[in-house]
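Design a sequence for this backbone.
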C-alpha cells in the first residue's frame, strides 16, 4: 500500500524524518518496503528551493514571430514580473485578454534549474539554459507535469489551484514522501491512511485527529425515498444507503488527484475519485449508484440465481453460480457484492442523483468470489481481510460531505441502515502472569494498560483471586484481536521488539547427526552444478496437454491424482514424471540463450489402485541442448550429444561409489530417438561360467536424445535435445561410502589387450569380466579402440583395452603380469566367448 506523508499529517503531527519514521513502523510490525521521495531532498529530481517556484500568470500574449508560441507575464514573488516564452496549448485561450481577471497559478523555473526533458523518451535530466526563441530571449519556463517528474503528461503546463501561494518553493507545496508498506494479513487494519496514522500516533505518543464528519442533510427524509432488503444477513452483517441529489460530476481538484495518484490510483471524475478517496482514507470501500437507474431506489442483497448474467464496470459479462452474492434492484443485478459494480447503474456525466452504498461483507464469501472470477480489486482486498463495522456511518458522512463540497447537491436526511446484529465490544482479561509467560516480560498491570491505551483499547485495572489484571475492551477497528495472545502481541509491539529480553538456552545442543540420504542428494546437486548445469524447480502440478507432448499414450487422466480445487487448468494433476515440466523450462530458456543445461530433483506421485495415498519417489531429471561449450573466439560449436549426457550420469555414479551400473540400449520408447537412448541398470555380480543367466538388474532410469517429433511438440528448434530421468532413491540406496586407499609408492605397469568379442556381448560385461579375473592389482581399465569390419570375423568385433597394474607392497614383475594376463584371457573365453586377437 502506498501512503503519502502529507496525507498522514492530516491525521497526526509527524516530526520524525521519513527514514526514521519508516524504521519505527518497521520495528513495530508495519513493514515499510520502500520510501519514495517526490521533489524533496533525496529524490531522483529534487526541486531547487530557489529556482523552482509557484507563480501566477498575469497576462498571455501572442509571440510576435511564431503562431504556436505565446508570451506569459509571470509573477513569481520577485519585484518585477518575468516574461516566459512557452508553447503550452492550455494557455492559447487566454491570448489577447490583457490582464487576466482571475488567478492562473502554475510552476515557474529559473535559468539553471534541473528538470526532466519533456520531449525525450523516459526520464532525461537537463539543466535550463537561456537562449533566444524566434527573436525573444527565453531564460525561464513554465513547467509541465513530465518536466517536474510528476507524470508523463506534457501537453500543457501544470495549473495549480487558484488559492496556491505565489513565490513558494514548489518542494514545500507539492513535494512529498510516499511510503510503500507491505500490509500482511495480521495488519489488515492498516489498509487505510487512518489505520497507518493510528499506528504512528500510538508509537509516537501523538494525538490522532479524525476528519470532519459533519454534513448538512437538508433534503427530505430518505425513509420514504430509498429502501434496503438484505436476504442473507449472515453474509452481509451491515448495509447502509444514503441519497444525495443535484450533483454535478466534473473534474476533482488537484489536491485530491495528487493524493490518489501518489497512492497508486488513477483519477477519473469527481464522484469516482471521492469514492476511491474515502476507501483509501478510512479503509471503507463503497459504491455509488445512479439513483435514477435503480428501480424504485430499492437495493436488495441476495444470492445469484443459477446462470444469472452481470456485466461489470470493466465491460466483461459474467455468468454467475448460485453461491455468488449480489446487490440488485427488484428487476436486475446491479453489482457483484464487495468486488465490483455493474455497468447498468454506473454513474456517468449526466448523473444528478446518487445512491451511496456502504456495507460490511463476510470475508470468506468475498475471497471465494474474487478468486473464482479472477476479479481482485482494491475493495475486495479490504473486504476479504475485514473492515470496521463501526466506521460505516462515519464513512457515509465523510463521502457525502466531500460530494457536497466538490460536486454540489442536497443530502437527504437520515440513512437506511440494515444492522441486525450490532457490534458487541469484546472484553478480554489480561494478567501480568500471562504477559510474562508469553513474552518473558515482567510488567505491572499499570504498565500493560499504559502500553495498550494509545492503540485505542479501553483498559480498566481489576483483580481476581490470583492477582491484578487488566480488563481490556477491544474497539471495532481491531477485529483481529480476540485472544490474550493477541493482546500480548500488541504489548510487545508497543514495548519494542528490540527491547524484549534475550533468553539463552539452558541446556547443551544435541549432537548433530548425519543423514546420509540428504547428504547424498546434496552431493548429486553439487556434482551437477560443478559440471556446469543449473538447477530448476518446476511445478509438481501439470495438465494432460503437457504430458501428451512427451508421450501421448501416458496422458491417461485416470492414472493421475487430480486436485479437487485447481487454481488453473494448467496445474490440475500431480505429475508422474519430472520430464514434461523440465523440458518446458528448457524450451523457454532456449528462446533466450543458445545453450541450456538444466537438472531438477523432485518427487513424482504414482497412484496405485486401492491405495489412499500415492507413492512419492524422488527423481533426478536432466535436460540439455545447444553447443558443447559456450561461444568463444575458439569457434567450437559442436552440439551436445548422447555421450555428454551419459558422461554427466557416469560422473554421479562414480562419485556415489556405484560400480555395478550398466547402460542397455533402449529401442521401444516413443519419447526417444530409436538408436540414441539407453536404460540405466544396477546389476548384481555376474555369475561365473559361459552360458550362465544374465545377472538380476534393477532399472534406475532412462536417458537419451528426444525424438525429433517430441522436440517439435515442445517448440524446440535445436537438432538434438538430451534428457534423462533417474530413480534417485535407487541410486542413493546403492551408493557406497568412500573408502580410503593408500597411495602405492611402487611404479605402475601398463599393458594393452586386443580381443575378438561376439557382437551381442555388451562392452560393460567385457570390462566387468576383465576386472573380475585381473584381481585387486588392476588400477585402471580403459577401452581405447573398437573396430568391426574388414579382416574381422563376421558377428564379432575387435576391442582393445589399456590395463594399468600397480601393487601396494612390491613392484610387479613380468612373470606376475604374464600370469594375470593369461588368467584374464582364459576368463574372457570362458565367460563371454572372447578370444585373443592374432
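Sequence:
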Amino acid at each position: 500500500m502506498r501512503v503519502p506523508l502529507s496525507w498522514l499529517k492530516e491525521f497526526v503531527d509527524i516530526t520524525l524524518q521519513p527514514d526514521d519514521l519508516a524504521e519505527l513502523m518497521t520495528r513495530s510490525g508495519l513493514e515499510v518496503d520502500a520510501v519514495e521521495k517526490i521533489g524533496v531532498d533525496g529524490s531522483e529530481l529534487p526541486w531547487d528551493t530557489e529556482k523552482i517556484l509557484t507563480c501566477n500568470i498575469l497576462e498571455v500574449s501572442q509571440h510576435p514571430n511564431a503562431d504556436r508560441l505565446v508570451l506569459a507575464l509571470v509573477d513569481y514573488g520577485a519585484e518585477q514580473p518575468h516574461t516566459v516564452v512557452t508553447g503550452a496549448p492550455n494557455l492559447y485561450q487566454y491570448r489577447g485578454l490583457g490582464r487576466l481577471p482571475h488567478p492562473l497559478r502554475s510552476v515557474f523555473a529559473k535559468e539553471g534549474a534541473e528538470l526532466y526533458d519533456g520531449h525525450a523518451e523516459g526520464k532525461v535530466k537537463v539543466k535550463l539554459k537561456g537562449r533566444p526563441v524566434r527573436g525573444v530571449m527565453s531564460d525561464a519556463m513554465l513547467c509541465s507535469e513530465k518536466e517536474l517528474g510528476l507524470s508523463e503528461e506534457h501537453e500543457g503546463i501544470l495549473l495549480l489551484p487558484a488559492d496556491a501561494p505565489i513565490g513558494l518553493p514548489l518542494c514545500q507545496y507539492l513535494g512529498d514522501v510516499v511510503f510503500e508498506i507491505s500490509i500482511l494479513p495480521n495488519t489488515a487494519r492498516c489498509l487505510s491512511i487512518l489505520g497507518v496514522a493510528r499506528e504512528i500516533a500510538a508509537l509516537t505518543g501523538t494525538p490522532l485527529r479524525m476528519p470532519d464528519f459533519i454534513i448538512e442533510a437538508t433534503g427530505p427524509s430518505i425513509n420514504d425515498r430509498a429502501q434496503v432488503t438484505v436476504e442473507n444477513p449472515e453474509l452481509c452483517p451491515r448495509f447502509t444507503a444514503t441519497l444525495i441529489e443535484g450533483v454535478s460530476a466534473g473534474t476533482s481538484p488537484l489536491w485530491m488527484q495528487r493524493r490518489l495518484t501518489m497512492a497508486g490510483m488513477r483519477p477519473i471524475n469527481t464522484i469516482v475519485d471521492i469514492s476511491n478517496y474515502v476507501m483509501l482514507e478510512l479503509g471503507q470501500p463503497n459504491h455509488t449508484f445512479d439513483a435514477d437507474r435503480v428501480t424504485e431506489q430499492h437495493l436488495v442483497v441476495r444470492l445469484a440465481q443459477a446462470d444469472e448474467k452481470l456485466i461489470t464496470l470493466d465491460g466483461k459479462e459474467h455468468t454467475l453460480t448460485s453461491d455468488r452474492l449480489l446487490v440488485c434492484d427488484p428487476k436486475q443485478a446491479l453489482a457483484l457484492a464487495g468486488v465490483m459494480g455493474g455497468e447498468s447503474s454506473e454513474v456517468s456525466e449526466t448523473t444528478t442523483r446518487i445512491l451511496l452504498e456502504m456495507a460490511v461483507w463476510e470475508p470468506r464469501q468475498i475471497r471465494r468470489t474474487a478468486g473464482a472470477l479472477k476479479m481482485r480489486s482494491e475493495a475486495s482486498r479490504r473486504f476479504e481481510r475485514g473492515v470496521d463495522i463501526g466506521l460505516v456511518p462515519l464513512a457515509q458522512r465523510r463521502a457525502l460531505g466531500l460530494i457536497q463540497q466538490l460536486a454540489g447537491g442536497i443530502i437527504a436526511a437520515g440513512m437506511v441502515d440494515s444492522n441486525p446484529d450490532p457490534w458487541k465490544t469484546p472484553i478480554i482479561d489480561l494478567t501480568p502472569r500471562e504477559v510474562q509467560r508469553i513474552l518473558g516480560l515482567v510488567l505491572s498491570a499499570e504498565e500493560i494498560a499504559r502500553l495498550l491505551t494509545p492503540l485505542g483499547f479501553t483498559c480498566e485495572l481489576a483483580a481476581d483471586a490470583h492477582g491484578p489484571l487488566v480488563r481490556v475492551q477491544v474497539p471495532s477497528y481491531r477485529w483481529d484481536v480476540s485472544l490474550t495472545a493477541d493482546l500480548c502481541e500488541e504489548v510487545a509491539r508497543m514495548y519494542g521488539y528490540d527491547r524484549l529480553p534475550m533468553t539463552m538456552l539452558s541446556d547443551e545442543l544435541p549432537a548433530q547427526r548425519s543423514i546420509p540420504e540428504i547428504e547424498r542428494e546434496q552431493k548429486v546437486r553439487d556434482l551437477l552444478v560443478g559440471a556446469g548445469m543449473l538447477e530448476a524447480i518446476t511445478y509438481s502440478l501439470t495438465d494432460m496437454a503437457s504430458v501428451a507432448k512427451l508421450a501421448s499414450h501416458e496422458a491417461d487422466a485416470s492414472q493421475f491424482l487430480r486436485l479437487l480445487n485447481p487454481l488453473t487448468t494448467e496445474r490440475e494433476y500431480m505429475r508422474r514424471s519430472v520430464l514434461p515440466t523440465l523440458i518446458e523450462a528448457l524450451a523457454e530458456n532456449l528462446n533466450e540463450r543458445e545453450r541450456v543445461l538444466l537438472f531438477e530433483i523432485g518427487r513424482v506421485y504414482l497412484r496405485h489402485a486401492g491405495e489412499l495415498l500415492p507413492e512419492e519417489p524422488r527423481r533426478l531429471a536432466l535436460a540439455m541442448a545447444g553447443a558443447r561449450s559456450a561461444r568463444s573466439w575458439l569457434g567450437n560449436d559442436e552440439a551436445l550429444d548422447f555421450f555428454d549426457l551419459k558422461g554427466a550420469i557416469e560422473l554421479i555414479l562414480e562419485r556415489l561409489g556405484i560400480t555395478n551400473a550398466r547402460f542397455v540400449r533402449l529401442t521401444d520408447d516413443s519419447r526417444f530417438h530409436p538408436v540414441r537412448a539407453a536404460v540405466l541398470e544396477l546389476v548384481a555380480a555376474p555369475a561365473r561360467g559361459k552360458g550362465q543367466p544374465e545377472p538380476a538388474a534393477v532399472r534406475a532410469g532412462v536417458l537419451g536424445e528426444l525424438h525429433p517429433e517430441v522436440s517439435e511438440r515442445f517448440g524446440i528448434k535445436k537438432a538434438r535435445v538430451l534428457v534423462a530421468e533417474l530413480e534417485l532413491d535407487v541410486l542413493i540406496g546403492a551408493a557406497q561410502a568412500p573408502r580410503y586407499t593408500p597411495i602405492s609408492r611402487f611404479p605402475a605397469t601398463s599393458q594393452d589387450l586386443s580381443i575378438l568379442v561376439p557382437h551381442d556381448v555388451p562392452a560393460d560385461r567385457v570390462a566387468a569380466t576383465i576386472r573380475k579375473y585381473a584381481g585387486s592389482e588392476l588400477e585402471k581399465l580403459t577401452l581405447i579402440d573398437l573396430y568391426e569390419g574388414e579382416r574381422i570375423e563376421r558377428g564379432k568385433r575387435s576391442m582393445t583395452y589399456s590395463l594399468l597394474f600397480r601393487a601396494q607392497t612390491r613392484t610387479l614383475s613380468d612373470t606376475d603380469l604374464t600370469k594375470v594376463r593369461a588368467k584374464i584371457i582364459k576368463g574372457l573365453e570362458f565367460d563371454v566367448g572372447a578370444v585373443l586377437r592374432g
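The longest helix spans residues 814-832.
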